[in-house]
Automatic annotation (TrEMBL):
Coiled coil regions in record: none
Residues in Transposase IS204/IS1001/IS1096/IS1165 DDE domain copies: 164-421
Domain Transposase IS204/IS1001/IS1096/IS1165 zinc-finger: 44-85
Protein name from the UniProt record: Transposase
Transposase IS204/IS1001/IS1096/IS1165 helix-turn-helix domain mapped to chain residues: 100-145
Matching InterPro entries: Transpos_ISL3 (IPR047951), Transposase_DDE (IPR002560), Transposase_HTH (IPR032877), Transposase_Znf (IPR029261)
One Pfam family cited in the UniProt record for this chain: Zn_ribbon_ISL3
Entry-linked PANTHER family: TRANSPOSASE FOR INSERTION SEQUENCE ELEMENT IS1557
Source species: Gordonia paraffinivorans NBRC 108238
Domain of life (superkingdom): Bacteria
Amino acid sequence: MAENTAIADTICRTIELGVTITGAALDGHERTHLYCELLAADDRCPGCGEPGRLRDHVHREVADLPIVGHPTRLHLQVPRFRCETATCPQAIFRAGIDDIVAPRTQVTRRTTAWMLQRMIVDKMSVKSVAAAVGLGWDTVNAIALSAARNLAATPERLDRVRVLGVDEHKWKHVRGQGDPSFVTVLVDLTPVVDGTGPARLLDMVAGRSKAALKNWLDARDQAFRDRIRVVTMDGFAGYRTATAETLDRARAVMDPFHVVHLAAEKLTRCRQRIQTATCGHRGRSGDPLYGIRRTLLTRTGLLTDKQKTRLKIGLDAHDEHVAIAITYAVYQELIAAYEQPHRREGKIAMYKLLKRIRTGLPAGLAELAQLGRSLWARRAEILAYFDTGASNGPVEAINGRLEHLRGIALGFRNLRHYILRSLIHSGGLAERLHAL
């Protein structure tokens, strides 16, 4: 009998819980029931520390790891003791099982870690995990979110953060419902810059404003703020101001994607203005400028011979198209500066370009002049990219993953729930699972 018990304990891994199997049964719901006793029950009184006398046992049923694909229930016989110290106020006490089951929970600690691992590492849905452990969706969801909250709140997650990415994210497309539609996303880019791993989501804050970022930074300790050396962001001035006021040692970097996107917007507006001035209407099929609207935004090195020919014909079709040609040339120079194989050469090329278009442009280049003023005002953040090599690309990638998460969940209504689910999905919590 003892040999059979040892085999069962080994197969079901109950020995690592500090319990031994005394019986087993199956029910009509395909669940396995294991009846267990504690191997070394602590009989010391929590009031006086003296050993107590066994009084009786209480029954505790909890969910455990699935066995061969079927839900499992542990039935623990927990001993209760009577304290025989006359001066002790504790008359009856129960042996502690907190190492096996957290207080006021329905699953063992290892099952909580298993559920979170399935969601984080294997990308399983709550529904699938709930079916595996034989619990309700709401129960499993609450357990997973509570565990994720605890992992995300550990100070160790912020210990090595030196490069911080900041961006906005639209988490819902329905007005009302109390919470703001936008959140500020904060991402650790340190592993990407160091080449040691992917970016990870640190947190999400309601709103997209200077106050949203500044309040989050103020809530962190001074040691964390002193460690931040680089903050990447888009062109939003609120994030830049919050960084300047809160992080004295950090260097702000305007993301290359947003710099190029700003130039593309000005090029498009210039094309639309000239289109209306020369044709008297918005672009239509057959119009020379309308036919090259996408080609204008394509990097020169990616153009086919046919596209190059179409582009030349479109730009040469009218004398007033020269404004578009000049703006297009600047747009391509901007991209070429970022493409330089050596960052120093790219920085020099970028500085010369920004200086050339900041003032003194001929009439008829209103969009390019506006672009020049805007980029020159942010030249420090634009040129900082070439010194740091940090960009918001990984932040945009996480934003895309969160968009997919929201899509497969058919929408979220509770912001707090969405933030915690996003941390499970993209927060890099897998390396912290051992802490559960």
